[in-house]
Amino acid sequence: MEATFNPFSLEGKTILVTGASSGIGRETAIACSRMGAAVAITARDEGRLQETAQQLATPPAAMVTADLTDDDQVKQLLAALPPLNGAVLCAGNSTTLPIQFGTREKFDEMFDVNFFAPVELMRLLFKKKLLQKGASVVLLASIGGTHSFMPGNGVYGASKAALNSVMRYAAREFSPRRIRVNSICPGMVDTPLIHRGTITEEQLAEDAKKYPLGRYGRPDDIANGAIYLLSDASSWLTGHDLVIDGGFSI
Ligand SMILES: NC(=O)c1ccc[n+]([C@@H]2O[C@H](COP(=O)([O-])OP(=O)(O)OC[C@H]3O[C@@H](n4cnc5c(N)ncnc54)[C@H](OP(=O)(O)O)[C@@H]3O)[C@@H](O)[C@H]2O)c1
User: Fold this and answer.
1) Marked catalytic residue, from 156, 169, 216, 228
2) Inter-residue contact 20 to 41 (CB < 8 Å)
């Protein structure tokens, strides 16, 4: 028997992870490096990005502090990147805001980071041919794009629904270069993001009981999904939104 059989291996691949200074992005960067990938990491906070770099199995292929809503900083990031076999676009934010307070300005703020930033980065990675033939792009969407999973998430949910829509068109348009595009739609995952808002710890504990598998997600639950989508194990999968939510949306 072949002792080294592992269709999920990322050996020989170079992967970009955005939002790598925290939560799902950090865990994904670490997990990809442990699966054998060379990992390029980016986020705004240099100190926390450095902490991620120190936890990688091998030194980062690139490490760039950049605000992905800023065109010039995106240009600097692109200039620093090696050719890529994959990209996991995790950078994003959330807001809890009832629709009655969801002004155009609030939608713009949310869409800037959750929709326009990853779409523009994906567009440029493709157009500038930084994504190699056969590369895999993974976008971080959310079950909030399809389900009213918690009150006050309409603005956030809309940004993720829009991202999933572009994901499907990109999957079709990038397919001649055999570049795959998929998304992950997590339910609530225990990262700094969910503790920053207005929802109390008591409300979070109560909400977690709604998850059939008995808990909120952990960053590694999502990182493992990203590994599948980046690896050759998913080489016939594109245009798919992979729901990882402990059964919440059943
Ligand atoms: N946690 C959940 O329950 C959950 C559920 C569904 C989907 N998601 C999605 O998963 C992704 C990761 O979330 P998370 O829970 O890991 O959140 P997190 O711990 O707050 O991490 C967010 C990351 O995005 C980076 N970031 C934010 N704004 C940025 C900007 N303008 N430019 C560049 N980087 C930026 C942050 O780094 P810096 O601050 O250093 O820039 C950080 O590394 C997000 O897209 C989120 O919407 C999360």
Assistant:
1) 156
2) yes
The finding on whether 67 has its CB within 6 A of some atom of ligand 1 is yes
Q: Which residue type is seen at 56? A: L
Q: In the prediction, which pLDDT does 197 show? A: 83
- Report which ligand 1 atom has the smallest distance to the Cα of 112: 31
81: DSSP letter: P
What are the tens digits of pLDDT across the range 134-157?
999 999 999 999 999 998 999 999
Q: Note if 156 is an active site residue.
A: yes
Quick one: fold of 14-244?
Rossmann fold (3.40.50)
- Model confidence at 2, pLDDT cuts 50, 70, 90, reads low
pTM of model > 0.85: yes
Q: What is the pLDDT of residues 72-91, one digit of tens each?
A: 999 999 999 999 999 999 99
**Counting beta carbons within 10 angstroms of the beta carbon of residue 48, is it exposed (0 to 12), middle (13 to 18) or buried (19 or more)?**
middle
Tokens 């977690």 belong to residue: 208
* 211: Cα within 13 Å, side-chain hemisphere: 20
The CB-based long-range contact list for 70-75 (8 Å cut-off, 24+ gap) reads 74/117, 74/120, 74/121, 74/124
113 lines ligand 1 (CB under 6 A): yes
The H-assigned helical ranges of 82-218 are: 104-111, 117-127, 154-174, 192-196, 201-208
Would you give the distance in Å from CA 23 to the centre of its chain? Answer: 10
